[in-house]
Structure formats: C-alpha cells, structure tokens
Amino acid sequence: MNNQQSTIKNQTSTRGFTLIEVLIATILVGLSIAALVAANGSFTMANGAGADLSTAEFLVEQIRELTTLLPVVDPQSGTTTFGPEEATLAGYDDLDDFNGATFSPPINANKATLPAFDAFSQEVTVQNVNRTNLEQVDDTHTSPFVQISVRIFQNGREVTSASWVRARY
Predict the structure, then answer these.
(1) In 3-state terms, what secondary structure has residue 100?
(2) pLDDT-based confidence at 45, cuts 50/70/90?
(3) How far is it, in rounded angstroms, from Cα 52 to Cα 119?
(4) pLDDT at 169
(5) Which of 3, 24, 46, 109 is 20 to 30 A from 80 via CA?
(6) Could you give the 3-state DSSP secondary structure of residue 153?
(7) CA 14 to mean position of chain CA atoms
C-alpha cells in the first residue's frame, strides 16, 4: 500500500507547469512581441523614406521632361542672359530662364503646380560647362554645353539631386 501512495504522488506532481515555467514562457513571448513591434516600426520608417525618394525622383523627371525640348537661349532675342526674361512661369520659353528658379509647390512637365506635393520643392540651376571638361563651369558663355541641376527638398531637407548636360541647338 505504501508503494501505491508513492506512485499516486509521482503521477500528480508531473501533470502541470510550474510557476517558473509559466513565467519564463511569458517573458519569451513578451520579448518576441517587443521585437516584432520594433521591426515593424523600422520597416514602416524605411518604407516612408522609400516613398519620399520615389516622389523626389518623380519631381526631378518632371523638370527633365519640361526642359528637354526647350532651346538653351531665348528664341526671340537670342540672348544668353541666364535667368528669366519674364517674371511668370508661363514666360519661361528657354532653358536659361530656369537658372536659380525654386518651385514650391513643385511643378510638372506642363508648368502646372502640384499642390499634392506641397511639402516638396524643386531648385533648378543652369550653367555653361567647359566643352572639354563637362564638370567645369564656363563663365564665358561660349561653350555649346549647359548643365542642368535639380535639387529636391522636402520640408527644407534635401532628398535627392540630379544633373545632366545639354548641347545648345
């Protein structure tokens, strides 16, 4: 009979979890959930930065499309004065008019403002570059090449920039 009681005691003591086992399991589950929440936050921030960069690249391409077909010098007067001849965007009829221009909210390839992107701005610079070294600025305005540079800002912080070279025609 004594043997029977010890068998019953052994069976009842091995049936459940101890308090320490439950506590360790709870801590492990809590740490896992905390790690998942932190990873989700990091992924959300990376996704937001990617979306901002994608928008900035879109705005660079709008300026590139706008300036692709414009002549480098004024078509009416033939002047090479950099900067706009007229104060309104509608009067920007050549590439040198865009030198020093900042558009906030940004504009599209049709010169229409994009109010949905009002946190962004476009800054355009147009410079003559040396015919033998396209990275060197030519202040004599005799070079047949110009460099267009566009910088995109979001709330005053630069997101991206791009430059390309065009020949006069």
Answers:
(1) coil
(2) confident
(3) 10
(4) 64
(5) 109
(6) strand
(7) 60
